[in-house]
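Example 515.
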Amino acid sequence: MSRSKNMEQNTKQNKELTKRNPIVVVMGHIDHGKTTLLDYIRKTNVAEKESGGITQHIGAYEAILGSKDGESGKITFIDTPGHEAFSKMRSRGARVADLAILVVAADDGVKPQTKEALEAIKSAGIPFIVALNKMDKPGANAEKTKKDLAENDALIEEWGGKIPLVPISAKTGEGVSELLEVLAIASDIEDLKADSQAKASGVVIESHLDSKRGNTATLIIQNGILRQGEYIVIGKSFSPVRIFEDFAGHTVKEALYGQPARVVGFNILPEVGLMFQTVDSKKEAEELIRQETAKTEPSFVRTESTAGETAFEIPVIIKADVAGSAEAIENEIKKLESEKLKIKILRSGAGPINEDDVKLASSSPDSIIVGFKVRLDKTVPELAERFKTAIKTFEIIYEITDWLREEIKNRLPEEIIEKELGRAKILKIFKQGAKDQIVGGRVLSGVVVSGKKFRIKRRANILGEGRIQELEQNKTRTPQVEEGKEFGVRLFSKLALAEGDEIEVIEEEKIKPDI
Ligand code: GDP
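Predicted structure in complex with guanosine-5'-diphosphate:
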C-alpha cells in the first residue's frame, strides 16, 4: 500500500472513532460487598426514569457520572453474579471489561478469592482500582489491608505503586462518588474509542431461555452501533434484532458502543463469553455461521493429542451437615486427582447450599456443588439453572465419588488416541502436485485404508503427515489394501514424498478420558 493511501486511511479511521463508555467489572472475595456496591451505584447514579423503570436485572447497567449541573459521562457496570462472563471470556483469552474494581473488605483483608480476582485481572491485562470497603465497621483495618495487598504484588499509589485505592462504605455510600471519579480518570487514561460507523460487535454476558419469549442474551456492545432489523451472529446461533431492549427493559431502536442491550429470539441459546457480530440480513447471518462452522471442524493436520498437556482443573464446593463430614468428603474427592485432573476445593463447610455457593460456583466454569445430608435454600435451584451449575445432594458418602467421576468425565476434553493400522513403502512417484501426489507402493504390514491419516517416515525420521485418498489395487478403487499387496494412491500432503519413503497409516479415535 502506498504511503499516501495509508495516511488517508488513518485519517479516515480517526474521524470515525468516538469516545465510548468504559465497561467495568466488580470483583473480589465473597461477602466483601460487591453486590452492595453495585446496588448502591444503581440506586444513586442511574437516571430516575431508568431506575424506576427497571423491571428486571439484565446483568449490566449504565450509570451516569457527574454533578447536579449535568452529566459528565457514563459507565457500564457488569453486575452478573459471580461475573461468569469475565471468567469464561478469560478462559477464551478475550476481554470483556476495560477496567475492574477490586472490592476488599477492610475488616477482612485479602482473602483467597481476592487473590484469584487479582490474578484474573492481571491476566486480562486491565487496569483496576481497589475499593477498600466496609470502612464504617469498627473492625476496619485499612493499613493491614494495604499491607496484604502489597504482599500480593498489588502496590497502591500511596505506597509508591500504580494502583488507586479509595476507602468506601458500600452500605452508607461514603466514598462511592470519589470511587466513580477515580474510575472516570482511569477510563480517560485508557482513551477508549469505538467506531460509530461499524456494525456492532461485543460479548455475551448472560443468556437464558425465557419461557414466554424464547432464547435471550444480554450483550455488551464493545464497538459499533446495533440497530433494529439487523441480525446478530454468536458462534452457531443467530437472532434477528427485533425484540430489542436497553438495560432497563425498554424497547429501543438502537444501542451504542459501550452500552448493554438485550436481544430475544436466538435459534440456539448463545454461550456466555462468546463474541457476537452483526450483519444486515438473515442470508449473511447464515453464511457467517457456515464459515464459523467450517473453521471449528477438526482439521487433519492436528496431531497433538490432548493427553499429557497441563492438568484440567475442576472446582468443587462441598456443603455437609457437619464440618467433619465435609472434611471426610474432601479427602474422598481428592482421591480422584491424577496427573490429568486437579480438584480445586472452592469451599468446604457445614450448612445448607445457599445462593452464595451458587454465586461462587458460577465464577469458575465447570464447577460442581456437592451436598451431604443438607438441603438447598429456596432460591438455589432457579439460580443454579440460570448459571448451569451442577448440584447434587447425597445421603451416602461413597455415592458422591461415583457421581462426581461421571460429572468430571463429561467436563474433561476428549483425547485423541492414535493407533497404527499398517505400514507401506513408496515404490514409485507418478505425479507430484503442490498439495497432493500420486504414488505407487507396497503394504509392509497391516493394512492401508482410504481416508485415513498417515505419517511420512524417511530413514527413521518423521517428516510430515497427510491423508490417504483414492486408493486403488489393480487399477480399481478399493477401501483397503492388505499386507504384501501393491497399490496406487493419491496422497494429500504438503511434503513431497520420495521413492523409498515409508508411510505409517494411522487411525485417530476420540475418547472420553478415564479418571
Ligand atoms: P458480595 O458477596 O461481595 O456481593 O457481598 P454483599 O454485597 O452481598 O455483602 C455481604 C454483606 O456485607 C452484606 O450483609 C452487606 O450488607 C454487608 N456489607 C457490604 N458492604 C458493606 C459496608 O460497606 N459496610 C457494612 N457495614 N456492611 C457491608
